[in-house]
Amino acid sequence: MSVRERFLVVSTGALLVAQLVAMHTAASAQSGPPRVATVASATGAGRFQIVVSSHVRADTFLMDTSTGRTWRPARYTDLKEEPTVWRLETRVDSEKDFQTWWHSYTPKDEKQQ
Questions:
Q1: How far is CA 89 from the centre of its chain?
Q2: Alpha helices in the chain (DSSP H)
Q3: Cβ within 8 Å of residue 108, ≥6 positions away
Q4: pTM, whole model, 2 decimals?
Q5: At what angle do helices 95-102 and 3-31 cross, to 10 degrees?
Q6: Cα–Cα distance for residue pair 65/38, rounded to 1 Å
Q7: I want to staple 37 with a disulfide (CB 3.0 to 4.6 A). Which of 50, 63, 88, 96 is the partner?
Q8: Taking the domains of the chain in order of start, what are their residue ranges?
Q9: pLDDT tens digits, one per residue of 65-108
Q10: Of 15, 16, 14, 56, nearest to 35 (Cα)?
Q11: Are the C-beta atoms of 85 and 76 separated by less than 8 Å?
């Protein structure tokens, strides 16, 4: 399987996980406390939402509902105090976006894969 095919499989899997988390969140909201924390803006509408999976901590992300941008928590263990920040996720919406993203990285040697 090529690296591009692996990326598409992982991307599809990540999208499926996000949809499942959203469905689980909606179902859980009916029977328990909400799983989505909304930060209200000046207009009262929640532009930013923190989505948290009750099953897997790695499924936590911050979403800008206006732009569609998402961030994931990232801990930098090579720094003192190991700070955690919200790291912007790269969004790939087209073949052109994929090609730009793909060429921004250096491929691993065959022995590293």
A1: 6
A2: 3-31, 95-102
A3: none
A4: 0.50
A5: 110
A6: 10
A7: 50
A8: 3-90
A9: 899 899 999 999 999 999 999 999 988 889 999 999 999 988 88
A10: 56
A11: yes
